[in-house]
Amino acid sequence: MVRILAIANQKGGVGKTTTSINLAASLASIGKRVLLVDLDPQGNTTMGSGVDKRLLDHTVYQILLGEQTIAKVRLSTKPGKYDLLPANQELAGAEVEMVSLEQRESRLKEALQAIQADYDFILIDCPPALNLLTLNGLCAAHAVIIPMQCEYYALEGLSDLVNTIKRVRMGFNPSIRIEGLLRTMFDPRNLLAQQVSDQLKQHFGNKVYQTIIPRNIRLAEAPGFGLPVLYHDRQSRGARAYLELANEILATAS
Ligand code: ATP
Ligand code: MG
Question: Which domains are present in the chain?
Answer without folding.
Answer: 3-253 (3.40.50.300)
